Model the fold of this input.
Amino acid sequence: MYVESVSFENYRNLKNAEFFPSKGINVIYGENAQGKTNIIECMWLFTGGRSFRGAKDRELITFDEKYSKVKATFFSTNRRQNVEILIQNNKRKATLNNIPKDYMSQIIGNFCAVIFSPHHMNLIKNGPEERRNFIDSALCQIKPQYASVLSRYKKILIQRNALLKSIQKNPELSDTLDIWNEKLAETGSHIAVYRHAYISSIRPLCESFYEGISQHRESLNIAYKSLYVDSESISREDIKNSILTTLQNKQNDDIYLGYTTRGIHRDDICVTINGKDAKSFGSQGQQRSAVLALKLSEASLLSKSKGESPVILLDDVLSELDLARQNYLLNKLEGLQVFITCCDSDIKAQNKFLIKNGEIFTGE
Ligand SMILES: Nc1ncnc2c1ncn2[C@@H]1O[C@H](COP(=O)(O)OP(=O)(O)OP(=O)(O)O)[C@@H](O)[C@H]1O
Ligand SMILES: [Mg+2]
Done:
């Protein structure tokens, strides 16, 4: 797929701006604090996701304005499509191909993108939540039905946690936990199967990208780390029973603490470089290369399963890579539509956009 136009109304410092990217590499350049990341952040919203910087919806609206409206036209599945997002009253509302949607999750899987920014280094550096978010967000784009299973799981978890707190005051309510254990185990087992399959599919891609990036000097390995999934052949029913048994065994701890201590919401992806944990032992460069390999794999799998390539959003990434890695990356992204932000306009590109104080100028 590729984007044909993007327009901004009251989006952060982009008061009123529009741009028309080309199919290949689009460089978005300019001095610091001009609005480059704002453009990338906004484009990611068209996937149905939240701000990749973790901003609240109201922070996306230009200071002293009441709403923000952003639109894109894009070409995908052999037709021109449009997506619009209105941000108002600390909420986002989406319209896809002129049809208003009740939930943002209903647009996931249409405008597909892969994003990589210095923020994504947290994928290796931070705790398991970042890595679960990585698989969850990648899976949602490939399989929109995953988004609804995941949302169901999150709701069940909130309800079970609320019940655990109520049981602290009214112990007789503990009989009702069985239903929530069952629901959590059932939904959780579906999620575990999806995630395990996803990691199995990107593992060989990741290994091969990392090998290329490190010029065959190092090796990367990833694995889905779950208490409930031990081998390739484990069935969903086995996973469900394993979650259920754990929930039942830990029930008293959960009641005491007032939250669900076990379940697939605690799972992780184990990333190792040359057999050693990347988070604890990886150098800055190795960690960056590992994220790059994960992101390239995500893009590759998304292309394969959708039958067309996603848009690639690279915020401030190129300047952080040495020349060999830059070339490797640009080479791998050949033929895709890519948006790259940077401070200078040195990179060879089909199209360049200068950003100055929230305004977009085409050409150099
Ligand atoms: N809600 C908002 N309303 C108006 N302006 C905002 C809002 N949120 C952020 N800004 C402004 O947007 C600018 C930052 O934009 P952005 O992060 O896109 O910069 P950048 O061009 O990527 O800079 P850098 O090269 O430093 O990464 C800042 O000047 C900031 O004050
Ligand atoms: Mg920036």
Observations:
- Residues 121 and 291 are 6 Å apart (CA to CA).
- The mean pLDDT is 94.
